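As promised in the previous annual report, we have extended the structural survey to additional targets. Below is the entry for FAD-binding oxidoreductase.
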Amino acid sequence: MKQVKHMKWWGWGEEGVFFNYANKPAFAPFVKKHLGIDLRPRQVDTIPFDASTVPDSPLPDALRDALVAATASDRVTTDAHERVVHGHGSSVTELLHVSRFDYGRLPEVVVYPETDDEVAAVLRACVEADAVVVPFGGGTNISRSLQLDPTEARPIVSLDMGLLVGVHELDTESGLARIGAGMLGPDLEEALNARGWTLGHFPDSFTHSTLGGWAATRSSGMQSDKYGDIADIIRGMTVVRPSGTVTLKPVPSESTGPSLREMFIGSEGRLGVITDVWVRVHRLAEERVVVAYMYPTWSDAVDAIHSIAEAEVPTTFVRISDAHETAFSLSTQKEAVTLKKKVEAKAQEQLWAFMRRRGWDTDQMCISYVCFEGSKGDVDGRRRDVALIAKRHGALTLGTGPGALYDQKKFDTPYLRDFLLEQDVMGDVSETAAPWSRINTIHDSVYVAAQDAFDKLGKQGFIMCHLSHSYHVGACLYFTFAFQAGEEPDREYATVKTAIQQAFVDNGGTLSHHHGVGMEHAPWMEQVVSTEGVNLMRTLFNATDPGNHLNPGKIVDASLSLYDQL
Ligand SMILES: Cc1cc2nc3c(=O)[nH]c(=O)nc-3n(C[C@H](O)[C@H](O)[C@H](O)COP(=O)(O)OP(=O)(O)OC[C@H]3O[C@@H](n4cnc5c(N)ncnc54)[C@H](O)[C@@H]3O)c2cc1C
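The corresponding structure token record, generated without further manual editing, is:
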């Protein structure tokens, strides 16, 4: 479907955009030191889809006719490329297999409804034909919430949300907007910005993910300190189910029994199709700056960030990288070619030398970014408050230069994963949220658990972490890990990933702060929400979808568990 933008079928983002290390002189030595690998020059510009063979779709004629009757003949397709694009999300294991032409179970058909009535008709047709239906937003989830069960014998219909778009209503008096669930981040922000508003929701996957996907996975954007997680942002919604439509009006808050809104948020397609969402929106800030600080150690940095949260300084985001992540981001600095950049590089070297003379161990230092928004007066005042706290914890303020650079580069990092996969390196992330009292324990335990897993595999691996999304009671810890894949990449990946997830749960963290559950995290649900909690969820899904038609095997009772790989 030409009007709907999709990512490249074999990896992240747009064709023709790559991670490039040729202009980053410290990157290859960094990889050599931490992974023991000599990087090869990038070989893969694209993977020709025509080189693969996709089995024909065995879509039954009666179901095709019913889907066409529900929508239109040019919005029902069994095209091989469409089926492959819609057959997976963006988890590293899915991309590893897809990029090697190993597609797994594909949907038989992709359908593009344009209205709520069409969505309802598609759902009824699927139930009638005993077919499975899986809503598709941008395909960016990394929890395997789109992956299909290879043993599923019934036809599978991928329901692409890409035509259910638009800012349908903007209540400027209340700061509320009703927006089509299929709208991609950039389109949505552009439409709101043109009228002086913003949603303020910027996940790292912003460029390719949708509002409905954010709702269905309980997402969080990097500016959640100010704008809230998607669960705070969403005030109402429409959810189309095979048996009828649930309409939740936008209200600031309500006392109407258990919250249906909360129940649909994070439901990953298992309770119906979210077709539009009422969100709270904010006027565009007059001023926005990102300031960088360098802390001597991780514990100084965590204490400082906790103090900022306790002091309730209104920041837009606060983020600290631990020493490993700080070293990694320094390794991705571009070669200084202009005179201005050469002067800046020299100044940075001199600064590090100065810090060493003052007793800093520069291998331990941790970079932090804090974003401030508001009127000029607000921003200045908040900057002063944070600068005082940072200074009390031994930080050096680096100013707005590195902050602006971080802001510009923030949506480029995902391209690194494709580059690493091409080098046979599996690079992925695991994230949790925990009370402040558990943050340092979790940080340290995850490092130990990951190292044990690397040792078990006999591999040199790398792990790094940042803290972001501060709350009154705690924060999110986000780990990135990498290792060179061997003969059994799925088992190797499962070994490292399960070690990290188990360390979260054993040490007082949750399973995921914002990536959802899918099939990837489902095995830990009992440990996190208790056996009775899982029983309740299972009862809800079974009772509301007795034929198991709506994205089955996600959140609980995963059909493809990570444990199966071990
Ligand atoms: C590089 C990278 C960075 C990321 N960074 C972040 C981040 O910072 N914050 C964050 O929260 N997440 C992040 N993610 C994860 C991912 O982007 C989110 O889970 C996102 O919310 C998924 O949205 P999507 O539109 O791509 O949904 P999809 O991946 O298409 O679908 C995800 C799930 O939601 C269901 N679904 C989708 N749309 C609907 C709908 N309208 N109604 C019902 N169910 C629906 C699908 O069936 C599926 O179960 C990142 C992912 C990658 C690859």
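The chain has a mean pLDDT of 95. Residues 215 and 420 are 30 Å apart (CA to CA). These points will be discussed at the next consortium meeting with the crystallography subgroup.
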